[in-house]
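Hey L., structure's done. Input below.
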Amino acid sequence: MAEKTYPMTIEEKEKLERELEELKLVRRPEVVERIKIARSYGDLSENSEYEAAKDEQAFVEGQISSLETKIRYAEIVDSDAVAKDEVAIGKTVTIQEVGESDTEVYIIVGSAGADAFAGKVSNESPIGQALIGKKTGDLATIETPVGSYEVKILKVEKTA
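Output:
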């Protein structure tokens, strides 16, 4: 079975590689050291420090595995390869909900780079799915769990 690919910009891939390096070279050794110290406390059956360190080790190893998979199956998207006014990964989109006056600005990224608080929405999110492939002036219907709404694409530009 073919593995899932992870569309992303080169910048997103580089960010994942930095995160992976941090986990492998800093976090993993820190956790191993905590486990060693906790082991020295004796009886492991009632050692909460040991249990917490083992839980953290499992979490860190899971993150490492996830990042390695995303990096291995990264599909670098070149936003220059699509029309200047077409929404794609690596583009910044300004939208306005139909009937509203406020505008919203989103950066379309691959799922690995999503960060809602920074205005970075995944191509797999409801907003991303609705906007990808549309152009300036188009209307898009965004489907959410609580209903749908229509937005107009006001501006599309390459993310700096």
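The first strand starts at residue 6 and ends at 8. The mean pLDDT is 88.

-- N.
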